[in-house]
Amino acid sequence: MKITELEPKLVWQCFDEITKVPRPTHHLDKMKAFLVDWAGRHGIAVKTDEVGNVVMTKPATPGHENAPTVILQGHQDMVAEKRGDKEHDFLNDPIVTRVEGDWVMADGTTLGADNGLGCASAMAVLLDDSIVHGPIECLFTVDEEQGLIGANGLQPGFVTGDILLNLDSEEHGHLVIGCAGGKVTEARVRCPREAAPEGLAYYEVHLNHFKGGHSGMEIGLGRGNANVQLCRFLWENGCEFGLRLSEIDGGGLANAIPREARAVVGVDAARCADFEKAVELFSDMIHAEFLLAEGADFTFDARRVDVPATVMTCEAAWKLVSAVFSCPNGVQGMSNAVEGLIETSCNLASVKMTGEEEVTVTVHQRSSVDSRRDEIADRVKALFQLIGAEVTFDDAYVGWAPNPESKVLEVAERSYEELFGEKPHVEALHAGLECGLFLEKMPGLDMISFGPTLKDIHSPSEKADIKSVGEFWKFLCDILRRLA
């Protein structure tokens, strides 16, 4: 079955069009052009701003012109992650989708349902004249996944609505009324190199197939961080085997838990058997540690490779590995205000060789308390400054404080209970949303966030629950009717 045959057809057909447009974060020219062209083809009023945000508008259903203007909001970009064995060019190739039982998935890549299904649902509202609604503004922001650039760059008057429905949450039946803020820390570590010494055998040590996932939504599930575990192995075995580090590479995007990491190391040729046994023992150990969180499918192994021309100096390699292994990672504190909510976390997102003698370490901090967000970022900075790294901060964004007096929340709760016979779950998230920035720019805005059920977002295992998409669509249309 093709996704265009699924119900509600209009939503899935719009999503199918979106999947054919390359749209990784910071590369959205094609997506912006698609949206403008799509609006033109359907006779829908459209405008853009300097940062690339797109707004489409639809007049109210006749007789409901005096209803409040509702902004339907989603973001244009998707997280571009793929399996290590998958050939895919996110700048040019479409996402290949497939129906697997009750789910829609992609073929070895992220699906982009985050936030493609939110955008598709807004587009379907623009097309469906059977829905009763007041004035509609559909806002498609740019670069939400890294930097919230569209929300940061939103100018006064670009949208005028009083109510905003953010369509970027991932669990049907949950109404989100608050979220964490975040900050990205980059440490550029100088790693001088020298000629590779003789008498060593070289191995590529590789950890692969951790589940990864969203560094806000899944950070509390106890999943492994490939960067941390690789550097744990290097630190624990570095002195024993006199390891010489030539290459290191792990993780990817700041908001994705690293699934894969690798290093090329040299070991005394006379001790290859001992080293291979150490790899085997470490693999057994982390499989026991992470069996419940990760399952048994991940791998940690080593294979012989050619002798490299150079290696990092012993001092540089030891400092780098020690700092990465010591870096804060995972849940750092729970909220005292909301039971069960992660307050502060840290994701050691990537370790990349970014120059002939430079390694860049990227760490993403989140917190529902801005001062705690800044504290954990400063701790990361302090750690890497101890080894002489140049440390900078980027992509800071504020949280969204819950508003228990929200009128749109009251409408949504009543709608959900009448449609589905049970109360929705009202919550704040540890993940970041654009809503905090919207509230800064439009202080009177009344907002909630909701969406269909998505699993394993920000990873190649991302999937969308088909049934929940239909229920989400029914819920969205009913909220619009009630607000009108």
CATH superfamily of the largest domain: Zn peptidases
> How confident overall, as mean pLDDT?
95
Q: At the third CATH level, what is the topology name of the largest domain?
A: Aminopeptidase
Indicate the CATH class of the largest domain. Answer: Alpha Beta
What is the name of the CATH architecture of the largest domain?
3-Layer(aba) Sandwich
Strand content bin: 25-35%
Largest sheet: 9 strands, antiparallel
The poorly predicted ranges are none
Question: Which geometry do the CA atoms define?
Answer: elongated
Describe what this molecule looks like in 3D.
It is a single chain. With 484 residues, the protein is of the alpha+beta class. Helices cover 31% and strands 28% of the residues. It has eleven helices and 23 strands. Strands 9, 11, 12, 13, 14, 16, 17, 18 and 19 form a nine-stranded antiparallel sheet that branches.
